[in-house]
Amino acid sequence: MPEESPYANVVLIGFMGSGKTQTGRSLSQRLGLRFTDTDALIETRAGKAIRRIFEEDGEEAFRVLERSVILEAAGETGQVIATGGGVPANPDNMVTLKRSGCVVWLQASPESVWERVREGQERPLLAVEDPQGRIRELLRIREPFYAQAHLAVDTSGKSVPEVAGEIIELLRAYHS
Ligand code: S3P
Questions:
Q1: Are 28 and 34 in contact, with CB atoms under 8 Å apart?
Q2: Helix, strand, coil % in the chain, rounded to nearest 5
């Protein structure tokens, strides 16, 4: 039996490699909600991988597509929404998402982000000479945006089921 959820949407934000997709999937099963991944939706709408959108159309075009997908996802209810790491850096996206549900920030240290993303090739923003420096820099720039979430969970050293369980407890306390 899914655990009951009284919320329109639960929205996960946070840096690349903070576990938004995996945690979102687990949380959606436990809460009996649908799962929406905005990066996957962008790839469906564009008909190509995010890496190719960056290569062929540039980051600005990607952000325009991202904004339209955020509006689309926020227009529905009954979902856990996992977002791309750059979504909150557009203040309009945060306004839209905070109106559509409870926004939860998955916090991760630069070290744990690096551990989780170092094997992958699919993140164009980290395809640079010094990816660890880039992670620290982007985290510093983005933290004030992430901090506007309703709730925050530290994911460092925790498993996906642990993080999902903590979010469920926080949601209960927040709405009681
Ligand atoms: C991005 C994060 C990625 C993806 C794109 C840009 C970012 O999503 O949207 O590569 O700006 O931080 P994840 O956070 O799911 O890796």
A1: yes
A2: 55, 15, 30
- Nearest atom in ligand 1 to the alpha carbon of residue 15 is 14
* Nearest atom in ligand 1 to 82's CA: 15
pTM for the model:
0.95
Q: Is 40 in the pocket of ligand 1 (CB under 6 A)?
A: no
Q: Is 106 in the pocket of ligand 1 (CB under 6 A)?
A: no
Domain ranges (residues) in the chain: 9-175
Write down the CATH superfamily of domain 9-175.
Answer: P-loop containing nucleotide triphosphate hydrolases (3.40.50.300)
Residue 103 has pLDDT above 80, yes or no: yes
Mean per-residue pLDDT, 87-91 = 98
14 C-beta closer than 6 A to ligand 1 = no
pLDDT in tens, 120-139: 888 999 999 999 999 999 99
CA of 70 to the centre of ligand 1 (A): 13
* Angle ∠(84,90,94) on CA atoms, nearest 5: 80
